[in-house]
């Protein structure tokens, strides 16, 4: 599915507010989020810690974590059970990444790299050629973690 296939009228998402820290200043907000285990402070490789102040401020700026996509697909296909544990998909993603299960993005020395060289985990356009590496016959399984 490409972004063009998505109905632009779908702009709302249901949420469950668990706490309201709106009155906190930014350092206090992040301190409380860490204290309550409500924030995952690792980059898309699941290895490097992020500075909370450099996190994306808009959901459209989130970076795709291909191993988190794999973890979601495995869970969605009964590979492991749903849990109330915080960030379980990311913990599984770290486990899968430790085995290098997915192909590395292509590195190119070309002056004009292809779209897929720059966006190797864009499942709508680039993943079908790599599907055999992850046993995916259903690229739609990865749609939820799709990077825009």
Structure, explained:
With 148 residues, the protein is mainly α. Helix content is 26%, strand content 0%. It has 5 helices and no strands. It has helices spanning 26-35, 66-76, 88-97, 115-118, 131-134. Helix 2 crosses helix 3. The longest helix has 11 residues, at 66-76. The relative contact order is 0.14. Residues 107-111 and 128-148 have low confidence and may be disordered.
Summarize the structure.
With 148 residues, this protein is mostly helical. The protein contains 5 helices and no strands. It has one domain.
Characteristics:
about 150 residues, mainly alpha, about 0% strand
Secondary-structure map with pairings?
Blueprint: H1 26-35, H2 66-76, H3 88-97, H4 115-118, H5 131-134
Helix pairs in contact: 2-3
Would you identify the regions where 5 or more consecutive residues have pLDDT less than 50?
107-111, 128-148
Radius of gyration: 17 Å
Oligomeric state: single chain
* Helix content range: 25-40%
InterPro entries: ParB/Sulfiredoxin_sf (IPR036086), ParBc_2 (IPR014956)
Pfam family, one: ParBc_2
